[in-house]
Amino acid sequence: MSEPKWKRxxxxxxxxxxxxxxxxxxxxxxxxxxxxxxxxVMIIAxxxxxxxxxxxxxxYPGEIFVLRNVANIVPPYEADDSYxxxxxxxxxxVNHLKVKAIxxxxxxDCGGIKAHLGGYAQQEPSSFIGKWVDILATxxxxxxxxxxxxxxxxxNGVLNSIENLKTFPFIKTAxxxxxxxxxxxxxxxxxxxxxxxxxxxxxxxxGV
Length: 208
Ligand SMILES: [Zn+2]
Known about the structure:
6-stranded mixed β-sheet
């Protein structure tokens, strides 16, 4: 019986990696494997297959600590008995890896943002997605970035995640000590353009 297409593609990709990129980065992998990781930056991005931080920032293995979830959302700090996978990754990055910066990167055509704007939480109350994207209800929708409602929400969602990061006590501590920076970013996909946000939440294109 032949392997399914998806599996053949994964194996082909792995073999290409092993015979190409891995060969040139063998020493890096070997050192990282024995000495551990020490990334300077954490990137919180969407799970969307079209906006991959390691591609966009052309990073080496070990260079960025990445959290990807639906719509690059950071939930507010909640000290309860629930499972908080995203918060656990953030805690690990800040308290244990001691990253110098956390970058929250949104992207164009985000399905999670669409779900939020379309009222998915009300339509599908038992859905994990609906409850998750409803975190965006606290985003500042008065802030206009000069685009469509979807574009504005994609950017305001990034800013909402940054505000929520500040609700974590260990992040407050790191910010007060000057040990951590927070920054918003946005990837256009269609044109391959990257925007960075300044401290006032205004986004501007990064030069190439
Ligand atoms: Zn997305």
